[in-house]
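Structure tokens please, single chain.
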Amino acid sequence: MKAMRLLYPSLSLLALAVACPAIVRGQDSTIRSGLTLHGYVKGLSQTTFLRKLREADHTGILHARVNLAYACGEHWRFRLETRQRLFAGNLLKQPGFTHLIAMDYGFFRLSETGNFQGNLFWHGIVDRAAVSYRTDRLELIAGRQRINWGIGTVWNPNDVFNAFNFFDFDYEERPGCDGIRAIYNLKGRGSLEMAGSAGSERSDRKAALLWRSQIGRYDIQALGGKFDSLVFAGAGFAGNLGQAGFKGEYNLYRGNASSVNDRYTLLATASLDYTFQNGWYLMGTYLYQSRGGKDLSALYNLSYQRLSPVHLMPLKHSFAGQLAKQINPVLNASFTSLYSPTSHLSIFMPSATCWMAQNWELTLLAQSLFARNNRLYQTLGSTVFLRVRYSF
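Here you go.
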């Protein structure tokens, strides 16, 4: 156990030892032959309120990331990435919040925390630590990695190893898992992929097989495997319907329950997106989740939650849409909305991103939730985020 606890500080110190001199000297991402470094430092201000802004709760997060990659010869690749966050503010007073942040679901414990008299909370994690071997047709990857099998923009039922949380906008890299993966490129445009993972919980034990190919103008895939006590099968596609992009995925899970209604779980999604000649982007998508209910309590701290591939939303039917435009070379704006008729839940997410200077980025984003309660449409709360990011 002591050896396991030494993994996080050892790997983090290795990343910082390489990163700090390069950052100070202002080098580009290539430090020396085969070794590359990049990352960022972010400051995030979060303001949450129910109805009155003067009664808001405020939280600040300082976030630093270091990504190291090393290419050794023609076939071997090594990857090490660390994530450090320092929290301060009212969120620390919410029951269970620090426990939610501190969870490390990997088989190896590659994270540490520090609680400073309840006023500051630090969390550090190595979320990528993998080695890969690649030939012309075969690639083998072992370690903490992201196994991304999803296709959709908002919801990804096929993403069984690392379920995608669309609302967690501040974690662009997405969580990884401790696993092994083999990718074999077939003749033509197809591939076979086998993967398995293990974690701190039984539900993190997964094994699956993925087949990818192309039919006409459509990329297609089929998958199947075992997830905890469940077996599953699914498929996905991506192509064009006229001038619009058209994507879809589904997964069907079978458990051991005696009732047929409880034995099977179906998640299915489809989306259309279109880019107009004047630069406007429009997207619409739908998610069906057969075991969805009406409980809105699962929306608590939605941006920080780790989703299960069997439970991507707490509700049975969900619709989402997005309108976005690159207004000029340094300013992008978007408006995303989500609606569920199950509980008449509505979520609105306007955002704007400005590139202020080279390597500097400013983002303003809001998440506002509304739902029907006793026939009245009421707010469930709003959160405004202001983020400054420096990339190196």
